[in-house]
Amino acid sequence: MKFGGTSVADLERIHNVARHVKREHDAGHEVAVVVSAMAGKTNELVSWVNQMPTVTGSNAPFFDAREYDSIVASGEQVTSGLLAIALQSMGIDARSWLGWQIPLQTNNAHGAARIEDIDGGEIIERMGAGQVAVVAGFQGIAPDNRIATLGRGGSDTSAVALAAGIKADRCDIYTDVDGVYTTDPRVAPSAQRLDRVSFEEMLEMASLGAKVLQVRSVELAMVHGVRLFVRSSFDDPDATDSAAGANPPGTLICDEDEIVEQQIVTGIAYAKDEAQISLRRVADKPGVAAAVFSPLAEAHVNVDMIVQNVSEDGSVTDMTFTVPDGDLGKAKKVLEAAQGDIGYEVVQSDPGMVKVSVIGIGMRSHAGVASTAFQALADKGVNIRAITTSEIKISILIDSDYAELAVRTLHSAYGLDKEAA
Ligand code: ADP
Ligand code: ASP
Ligand code: MG
Q: Could you tell me the distance, in angstroms and rounded to a whole number, from the CA of residue 118 to the centre of ligand 2?
């Protein structure tokens, strides 16, 4: 059972979470729980780090990522202890576990570490003896023996890794919505809950901006075959006893084979804070793309959509791509420094772009899915700046002013709106 930040936002909610855990425990299940920090806590901790003075000197890092991890991991330490106490007060044997105590081993990429291994041994033993394990999400221990965090939203990944590590029968992700919707219900009130979503589609949805699950958690679930059930922690804990046969609302993330009725389009996702960069009049010859993207990669700038035009006379062309808004300054510096090697004439950039994506496994076998999107956006006067596609998604870059309009328009265009009550 994993509970996110809004589900443990205050003491009353932590008590409510304890009631959900008690229900499963009383039904005879052996339970491990993963918790996030209280809503807003991690943001506060991050902002404290960002307010600290940095080391002076040319190549100094912005801040020591190991200390960042030690600070921002603290929110989960608090909620795991509080939940353990709440459970004890209900007569349940429970204890908290920090990442290093399990241990949940990560690599050295502080701030966005990947889980390498998890030793479920002691937890399995104690669960067998009736003790509930309350695990602090978002954290592990790196080979340098320092605390490491898993990137924002990382408690989902802790939960999936733990579920795999203890060979759990179920991994329930409790959050502030009662499942995965056809799009973010905060943007489109007409969004509908999906009963089942395949791992592959969920991976695309999460990668393309649907923050309901961290991308890495879906990857891990897919690799280890951990079926996820996304459900709400705000449902009455005593009225949703799945063990007793009640069917709580929620979304099952599972193998494609388990989904009988496959829609052509499953959902619409969007990602804000993208920036567009265009290099004008780049020489059209072998090696140019490498000259553009190698230095960006070396500077750890994550390039996303890439569009290169075919030149009219074979001499010069335009190259457009996107980077996260936050990396735009760095990217421009890198490109300016490499102007000699690349040989472009001007670099133009536009921050504040949004990438809207249409996702669906059914696209593999259906024609005309993309044209529906383009026509619907054209009808609303939304200008398209760049397009990329894969087998199961279409991504469209637009101005951020049109983000919500575009999400709702595409949602309707593919018939995803729920029928008015
Ligand atoms: P938690 O703190 O429980 O991890 P998050 O805030 O990380 O919760 O994720 C839940 C939120 O994800 C929802 O409140 C919702 O606004 C957002 N969201 C974005 N896209 C979707 C979607 N397709 N379906 C459901 N929720 C979505
Ligand atoms: N508390 C961490 C965050 O806000 C991890 C999580 O909530 O999943 O990113
Ligand atoms: Mg989350």
A: 19
Task: Give the global pTM.
Answer: 0.92
Q: Which residue, judged by its Cα, is nearest atom 1 of ligand 1? A: 4
Q: Which amino acid residue places its CA nearest to atom 4 of ligand 2?
A: 42
Cβ contact 156:130 at 8 Å: no
Please tell me the distance from the alpha carbon of residue 330 to that of residue 318, in angstroms, as a whole number: 21
Which ligand 1 atom minimizes the distance to the CA of 205?
Answer: 23
CATH-assigned architecture of domain 2-257: 3-Layer(aba) Sandwich (3.40)
Instruction: Find, among 170, 175, 135, 132, the residue nearest to 153 by Cα.
Output: 175
The closest of 279, 297, 276 to 288, measured between CA atoms, is: 279
What's the number of CA atoms in the CB half-sphere (13 Å) around residue 374? 11
Q: Is the CB of 152 under 6 A from ligand 2?
A: yes
pLDDT of residue 57: 57
C-alpha span between 384 and 106 (Å, rounded): 41
pLDDT tens, residue by residue, 357-415:
999 998 988 989 999 999 999 999 999 999 999 999 999 999 999 999 999 999 999 99
Which ligand gives the minimal distance to the CA of 181?
Answer: 1
Q: Report the run of H or E that residue 13 belongs to, with start and end.
A: helix 11-26
**pLDDT band, residue 239 (cuts 50/70/90):** confident
Ligand 1 centre from 185 Cα, in Å?
Answer: 8
Angle (CA) 103 218 31, round 5°: 50
| Phi, psi angle pair for 270, to nearest 5° | -145, 150
Task: Provide the pLDDT for residue 421.
Answer: 60
Give the distance between the most distant pair of CA atoms in the chain: 79
Ligand 2 binding pocket includes 154 (Cβ within 6 Å): yes
CA 236/CA 226 separation, integer angstroms: 26
What is the residue extent of each domain of the chain? 2-257, 267-413
**Residues 119-168: pLDDT tens digits?**
999 999 999 999 999 999 999 999 999 999 999 999 999 999 999 999 99
Q: How far is CA 195 from CA 116, 244, 263, in A?
A: 32, 20, 12
Residue 331's nearest CA partner among 307, 290, 299 is 299
Q: pLDDT band for position 277 (50/70/90)?
A: very high
**Considering only the top CATH level, what class is 267-413?**
alpha beta
